[in-house]
Amino acid sequence: QVQLAESGGGLVQTGGSLRLSCVASGRTFSIKDMGWFRQASGKEREFVAGRNWSGVGTYYTDSVKGRFTISRDNAKNTVYLQMNSLKPEDTAVYYCTARLGVQYDNWGQGTQVTVSS
Predict the structure, then answer these.
(1) Taking CA 1 as the corner, what is the angle to CA 8 and CA 106, rounded to the nearest 5 degrees?
(2) pLDDT tens digits for range 41-52
(3) pLDDT tens, 90-99?
(4) Is 89 helix (H, G, I), strand (E, B) or coil?
(5) Which residue of 14, 57, 92, 114 has the smallest Cβ count within 10 Å?
């Protein structure tokens, strides 16, 4: 298993920026992919961004393309989510996740992001 710890959430105004960090520990050598999901109040958890751990592939949901960037620092076992031009609809709890097998099966506790209008 992999343990994940997120940080960096907070309150920001529309148009502002935040950077989320996620530090992985445990069986990090088994990680194939890491990503970010989010869950707004009353809604289902949705995929936001993902990154292949050993390669260069990145992928995003359409609503954040051009505004969010996922990056990694393998030496620190850390993945980041740089969020720019934030909108009120980005308000959610953001979860870091890691995929060791077929699907994302390791999750962090989540960090709250609130964008005020």
Answers:
(1) 45
(2) 999 999 999 998
(3) 999 999 999 9
(4) helix
(5) 57
